[in-house]
Amino acid sequence: MSKAKKLKLIEGEFPFREAKEILFNVFYTKINFHQRNNFSYKERFGKEDPTAKKRIPALKKELVKLEKILNEAEAKDKRLIISSEITITLSDD
């Protein structure tokens, strides 16, 4: 195992519309990734990809939470402070 490396993906304070666009793009891109993988997996193996089967509903559930946060921010005319970090560790598997 190697030491974990950290990358900042999103860092800053954003007006509602920018925050919404950034965050929805991140979630929709990840959902689309799993949907494409699931389609490919079905074509090759005749069944759903087990990872996609778990991750798509989990990501959609997080989107519902995000919508609530964004609705609150919009209603209160608040800016959003967003910090997102990716941690990468190389595996020996």
TrEMBL record:
User: What organism, scientifically named, is this protein from?
Assistant: Algoriphagus alkaliphilus
What's the protein name?
A: Transposase
